[in-house]
Each structure stands twice: as structure tokens, then as C-alpha cells.
């Protein structure tokens, strides 16, 4: 195809597929790049973008909007200069109200199914630390660019909790079985360069602007690929993991609730929260 025809097609798709977004997001900034129609979704829940019910619900909504508008792609990033997201909001798990916890976990399942299984391509511009649920969101994306000198990984065992099977499958879709086992059993957080070495991220960046530039460049790979072929191929690779969770959704919620409410697990979370607070006090 001639370059001029390609850019004409791209302009046409810009006009017809321009996504419409709710302006009511409180914890997200959503913007569309005029050059390539890629949407950047920026997590904006200070101080650490911890994933509570509100933030998860908004991410779920924006993913639905992007799918409906046949978006050509999405970049996930953060408004913080040092945290991509600190993972699940520990306050949602500490002494949880069972009904609220069920809604929270359901929202997390929704986000995972929509992001991991999105028909449009996705990239994470990881401009800060990405522990636990933060690593999960990044791994759901198809491509990861990470700013140097931050940490990423599924560190659940360090908190005395167990990463659910769908977290594990997401890591297995990203790095080797061997590296997944070692990383999960030790709750390892990888520095950016270590993450690159095992393939947990695809590229390193010097800063957020560089990460966004590299993430945007990823989508150029699909300019000549029919979106339907792309989407079906992704579904062939990831669809069965999503079906497994769909079938076991209620059971997963119940199992997680009974695990999280165990006194030993609650004590572990309290200890971890105290460590986070002490860190701040000893730094002051
Ligand atoms: C069976 C159930 C399976 C459940 C699966 C769970 C997956 C998860 O995602 S569990 C969450 C795991 N997250 C973490 O381990 C990260 C903990 N946080 C950190 O390591 C650090 O905060 C940071 C490296 C992300 C950022 O460090 P920084 O120095 O910039 O900030 P802090 O001073 O540590 O934190 C500021 C503030 O935020 C609170 N906070 C931090 N993380 C969380 C969190 N995940 N949930 C709720 N709140 C969090 C921290 O306590 C501070 O609060 P105060 O300002 O009130 O002291």
C-alpha cells in the first residue's frame, strides 16, 4: 500500500472511530493522541495510585468505552513521578466488610478480563514502582516500557498472601515457568534492568516522555495488520485463561474472601501497613 493511501485510511479511521469518554473520571486522565488516535489512560489517585473499588471501576469503564469505540490502542501510565501503582489498596483487604470486598474483587476480575483480553493493542508506560497489582496491570498489557531504577513484580508472598491463579497465568504468559516460580515463591521485586533481563518488560526508558514515545512506537507495528486478525490471534493465546476465570468467578471471590479474613493473614497485613508507616517516620 502506498504511504499516502495509508495515511488517508488512518485519517478516515481517526474521524470515524474517535472515542468518546466520560469527563466524570475522578481517578483517571484520558486523552487521545491526535497523530495516531492512541488513547493514554493515566492513573491519578495520589499518593500511590492504590487500586481501590473506585479506581478499578473507572478503569473497567474506560476499557469498555475503548472497546465500543474500536480504539486502535491504549497506553496505561501514571501521573506520579515515582509510582505506577502500588497495587491493590491494602485498606480494601484490611478488616474488610464482606459485601464491599466482594464488589472490590469483582471489579478487579473485570479489569483483568477486559485488559488482558482487550481486542485493541495495549502498552504500559511504567513510570514508577509497580508492585503486585501494579505488575499485574502492566503484564495484562501487550508491551511494557519501564523507566529505569524502579521495581516491578508480584510480591504477594512478602505480605503473607497468595497470588491468585489468574495473576500467575498472566506472569506465565510473560516470562518463563522457571522465572515465574522463583519470582512468585520469593515475592521478588525486579529492578528495571533485571526485569528487562527476564523479559518482564520489553524496553527501558530514561523518563516518562521516553517511555511514552517508545510505547507509542509499539503501535506502528500494527499499521499494516488487519485488526480482526490481530484480535483473534490474541484471543487464541489468552482467551482460555479468561474463560477459566469466568467459569470460576464466584468461587474465586469466595476463596479470596475466606483467605483474606483469616486472622494470620490480617495480622500479616497489619504488620505490612506498620512497616510502610514506619518507613515514612524513620525517613522524616
Ligand atoms: C489472596 C489475596 C490476594 C491479593 C493480592 C494482592 C495484590 C496486591 O496488589 S497487594 C498490595 C501490594 N502492594 C505493595 O506491596 C506496595 C506497598 N507500597 C510500597 O511499597 C510503597 O508505598 C511504594 C514503593 C509503592 C511507594 O513508596 P513511597 O515511598 O513513594 O510511598 P509510601 O510513603 O510508602 O506510601 C505513601 C502512602 O501510601 C500508602 N500505601 C502504599 N502502598 C499502599 C497500598 N498498596 N495500599 C494502600 N496504601 C498504600 C502508605 O502507607 C502511605 O500512607 P500514609 O501517607 O498514610 O503513611
UniProtKB/TrEMBL annotation:
<keyword id="KW-0809">Transit peptide</keyword>
<dbReference type="InterPro" id="IPR001753">
    <property type="entry name" value="Enoyl-CoA_hydra/iso"/>
</dbReference>
<keyword id="KW-0007">Acetylation</keyword>
<comment type="pathway">
    <text>Lipid metabolism; fatty acid beta-oxidation.</text>
</comment>
<dbReference type="GO" id="GO:0004165">
    <property type="term" value="F:delta(3)-delta(2)-enoyl-CoA isomerase activity"/>
</dbReference>
<comment type="subunit">
    <text>Homotrimer.</text>
</comment>
<dbReference type="GO" id="GO:0006635">
    <property type="term" value="P:fatty acid beta-oxidation"/>
</dbReference>
<keyword id="KW-0496">Mitochondrion</keyword>
<keyword id="KW-0276">Fatty acid metabolism</keyword>
<dbReference type="GO" id="GO:0005759">
    <property type="term" value="C:mitochondrial matrix"/>
</dbReference>
<keyword id="KW-0443">Lipid metabolism</keyword>
<protein>
    <recommendedName>
        <fullName>Enoyl-CoA delta isomerase 1, mitochondrial</fullName>
    </recommendedName>
</protein>
<comment type="function">
    <text>Key enzyme of fatty acid beta-oxidation. Able to isomerize both 3-cis (3Z) and 3-trans (3E) double bonds into the 2-trans (2E) form in a range of enoyl-CoA species, with a preference for (3Z)-enoyl-CoAs over (3E)-enoyl-CoAs. The catalytic efficiency of this enzyme is not affected by the fatty acyl chain length.</text>
</comment>
<dbReference type="Pfam" id="PF00378">
    <property type="entry name" value="ECH_1"/>
</dbReference>
<dbReference type="InterPro" id="IPR029045">
    <property type="entry name" value="ClpP/crotonase-like_dom_sf"/>
</dbReference>
<keyword id="KW-0413">Isomerase</keyword>
Amino acid at each position: 500500500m502506498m504511504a499516502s493511501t495509508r495515511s488517508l485510511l488512518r485519517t478516515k479511521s481517526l474521524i470515524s472511530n474517535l472515542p468518546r469518554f466520560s469527563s466524570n473520571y475522578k481517578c483517571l486522565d484520558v486523552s487521545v493522541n491526535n497523530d495516531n488516535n492512541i488513547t493514554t489512560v493515566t492513573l491519578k489517585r495520589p499518593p500511590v495510585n492504590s487500586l481501590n473499588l473506585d479506581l478499578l471501576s473507572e478503569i473497567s469503564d474506560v476499557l469498555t468505552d475503548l472497546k465500543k469505540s474500536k480504539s486502535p490502542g491504549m497506553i496505561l501510565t501514571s501521573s506520579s513521578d515515582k509510582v505506577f501503582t502500588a497495587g491493590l489498596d491494602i485498606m480494601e483487604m484490611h478488616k474488610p466488610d464482606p459485601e464491599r470486598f466482594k464488589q472490590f474483587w469483582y471489579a478487579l476480575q473485570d479489569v483483568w478480563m477486559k485488559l488482558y483480553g482487550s481486542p485493541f493493542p495495549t502498552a504500559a508506560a511504567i513510570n514508577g514502582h509497580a508492585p503486585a497489582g501494579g505488575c499485574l496491570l502492566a503484564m495484562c498489557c501487550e508491551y511494557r516500557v519501564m523507566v529505569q531504577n524502579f521495581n516491578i513484580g508480584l510480591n504477594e508472598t512478602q505480605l503473607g498472601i497468595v497470588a491468585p491463579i489468574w495473576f500467575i497465568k498472566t506472569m506465565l504468559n510473560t516470562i518463563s515457568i522457571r522465572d515465574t516460580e522463583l519470582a512468585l515463591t520469593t515475592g521478588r521485586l525486579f529492578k528495571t534492568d533485571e526485569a528487562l533481563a527476564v523479559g518482564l518488560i520489553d524496553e527501558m526508558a530514561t523518563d516518562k516522555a521516553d517511555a511514552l514515545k517508545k510505547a507509542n512506537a509499539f503501535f506502528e507495528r500494527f499499521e499494516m495488520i488487519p485488526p480482526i486478525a490481530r484480535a483473534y490471534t490474541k484471543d487464541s493465546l489468552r482467551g482460555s485463561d479468561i474463560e477459566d476465570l469466568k467459569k470460576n468467578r464466584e468461587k474465586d471471590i469466595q476463596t479470596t474472601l475466606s483467605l483474606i479474613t483469616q486472622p494470620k493473614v490480617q495480622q500479616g497485613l497489619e504488620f505490612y501497613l506498620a512497616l510502610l508507616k514506619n518507613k515514612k517516620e524513620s525517613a522524616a
